[in-house]
Automatic annotation (TrEMBL), chain A:
UniProt keyword Transferase present: no
Organism: Ohtaekwangia kribbensis
This protein's name: Cbb3-type cytochrome c oxidase subunit I
PROSITE patterns named in the record: COX1, COX1_CUB
SUPFAM superfamilies: Cytochrome c oxidase subunit I-like
Keyword terms: Electron transport, Heme, Iron, Membrane, Metal-binding, Respiratory chain, Transmembrane, Transmembrane helix, Transport
Keyword Transit peptide: no
Sequence similarity: Belongs to the heme-copper respiratory oxidase family.
TM region(s), chain numbering: 47-69, 97-122, 143-162, 191-213, 233-259, 292-312, 324-345, 357-378, 390-415, 427-451, 471-494, 514-536
Top-level taxonomic group: Bacteria
Subcellular location: Membrane
Amino acid sequence: MATTDIHIHQDVHHHDDHGHEHDEHHEGNFWTTYIFSLDHKIIAKQFLITGIFWALLGGTLSVIFRLQLGFPDMNLDWLKPVLGEWITPEGKLDPEFYLALVTMHGTIMVFFVLTAGLSGTFSNFLIPLQIGARDMASGFMNMLSYWFFFLSSVVMFVSLFLETGPAGGGWTIYPPLSALPQAIKGSGMGMTLWLVAMALFIVSSLLGSINYITTVINMRTRGMSFTRMPLTIWAFFFTAIIGILSFPVLFAAALLLIFDRSFGTSFYLSDIYIGGEALAHDGGSPILFQHLFWFLGHPEVYIVLLPALGLSSEIIATNSRKPIFGYKAMIGSMLFIAILSFIVWAHHMFVTGMNPFLGSIFMLLTLIIAVPSAVKIFNYVTTLWKGNIVFTPAMLFSIGLVSFFLTGGITGIFLGNSAIDIQLHDTYFVVAHFHLVMGSASFFGMLAGIYHWFPKMFGRMMNETLGQVHFWITFVGVYLVFFPMHYIGIAGFPRRYYSWTNFETFSGFADLNMLVSVAAILTLAAQFIFLFNFFYSIWRGRLAPLNPWNSNTLEWTTPRKPGHGNWVGEIPSVYRWPYDYSKPGAKEDFIPQHIPFSETPESNLPHENELIKLETSNGEGAIIIEGNKH
Amino acid sequence: MVPDIKIVEEAKRPLAMNPKKFGLWLFIATVIMLFGAWTSAYIVKRGDMGWSEIIVPDLFWVNTGIILASSVTMVWAVRAARKDNFESLKIALSITTILGIAFVIGQFMAYGQMVELKEHFTGGPVSHSFVYVLSGAHAVHLISGVFFLIFVLVAVFQSKVHSKNMNQIEMCATYWHFLDVLWLYLFVFLLLNK
Ligand code: HEM
Ligand SMILES: [Cu+2]
């Protein structure tokens, strides 16, 4: 009884941090603070900067091959200073180099930007901050994860400068093309380095994923039950689980390929004649590689997408000033997607001559994925519905993501039908599908995340106007690039072809291809607005307030620039879910997670008032929070 | 006087395990997926035409015995550590390590037998290459396990392992038993799917 009396409203427990600008007085010098850092925030930034570097490079490669596709007669001599021998004496792009460009573009974007750059940045940055932990479970493993990624990046980057060029067999590196150095230049040393780089990449990714899962499960602050975790964390959590289960399989596939290439085994090779001579390899099956590859490959597309969906869930709820619609349905659909993603891989292989009955089973499973995907889109839209929408750049990019996820997802349903896929497979229709649903949607999620969490990362704000300009040009640009590809693809234009001018049928698409290329160049150019904004704001941006978006999650309770350990005093406890926006009766339109129900009697629901009763029960089950441990 | 404190409803501490042990289990999951991929590939390939039967060298039986014995001594070591029985701990863990090394050597000798029986890694049928890949990849993991054992053994001799400090040896035991079970799985798999 006595305990009920001592209700004094003076917030002693949460941070008195406003004054303290955490001066990094840890003994760290430049090397331990910024290079071999164990701090999750620095590691996140390392991933981010490396990811941005790769994104620029990957984007530039794509513009080079778009020049070839959009302007087949153009003289490219002016690229000689950069590309050297890859420009033929006639001023054209070397056809084999074209293949290498496509391969590297795909590899870089899928793995280095949208896997490492996206998960590496945001899982690292947000998991400890949003669950209330001082750092990752193992800072050392986290550092290793970055440095394996860095090594992998170096190897992949070096392969660009080989005389025979980088890998050229497509990002899916199907054998026998990728297994036989005689086949194309890109299957020589470039392919070897590709495999080495990917092996390192897999190690990095696994180290990261093990850390993310361990941290989410074991390091949550008081009160952060699973059902109070922000959807970002749920998304990173599922992503990491998918990664742990699928990347080892890619490793298995790659190792057998390495044996075939360098040791003379025949796992993937059989009955191959070169110049009339049979190769010694016999008895293998290239289809086996496809099975192994796509067992990773399909989950991989969700490794790329789920973090983006998580980020946008958070951003959309915050900027609609409404609770996310269907929190549990969002978690459930992510779980369902994660499970399904492991049993649909053969939809990439409908034309490999698989048993049509098996094809139908995979078709059925594939089409079922549309259900949880649709649930998610529905929930985004209903969250926006009648919200008090604040159109920050982050919000715009998140809405853009929903749009791409929808347009790209619909074409997935076409492709998932095996009968239709036989016509559409390996055409630009597929290219349109996955660039919208995976490429653009995830890219937009990543950009949204950067705009939204920039204040927490660097303590300063990015320029909103530039952000909006960046959004509109990119949004329109992406549709201009990828929408026409549906038509080109339905007409049967195959992907990965260097030239189509020899085919009378396709000459009608010259204009459309030109439009696509111009749009691609403009879209890439618009990214420099972002780059300028990003780097300028790191040093010169307006100082960020502590909680610039009036958001509920824990990271906004840290100092402006959190030091090592994130919170100056105690880690705040969590009393509610993260989506108490515009709660009826509340004083403001948001109630952060660390505010107990006892402080918000005006807006509590009946069952939430029940929770307060704990404190009147003789102090039993209640804790006194004042710098105490346990 | 009313003290200057505040009481709120208790925020429950969420469930938590030892992060390192948990991480080890996740690592084990990745290894399971790795071998899962290879054994699935094996089965798929075996269903193809033109499969030639594999040869399982006799030494595999001996090595299986060795690794099973090493698991037993590992259990013994953990029990001893829990009871602070350092003499037994040192003996048991040393034997485990030696058995582990013996297993690796035994596997390489088994490769000798396989070569004699004309089962080669390269140049022969795919099925034969598979035997090398499966057992070789297992051996690589087992070598990492031996290093882990040596690491713990050093800690034991520095008296850093005792009933109050069991984490290291328990993790080592988990990994070791896993490698043992993994080998049993591979061995039985090969015997059943010749
Ligand atoms: C409604 C859900 C979806 C369905 C039914 C679906 C179906 C398909 C099918 C059948 C293909 C194979 C097309 C072919 O090669 O002939 C395909 C390709 C692809 N999909 Fe989807 N998809 C869906 C959603 C997604 C999502 C959400 C992503 C990524 C986040 C994605 C990424 C990809 C990629 C990257 C490829 C092409 C890979 C390549 O060949 O290079 N898809 N999709
Ligand atoms: Cu797929």
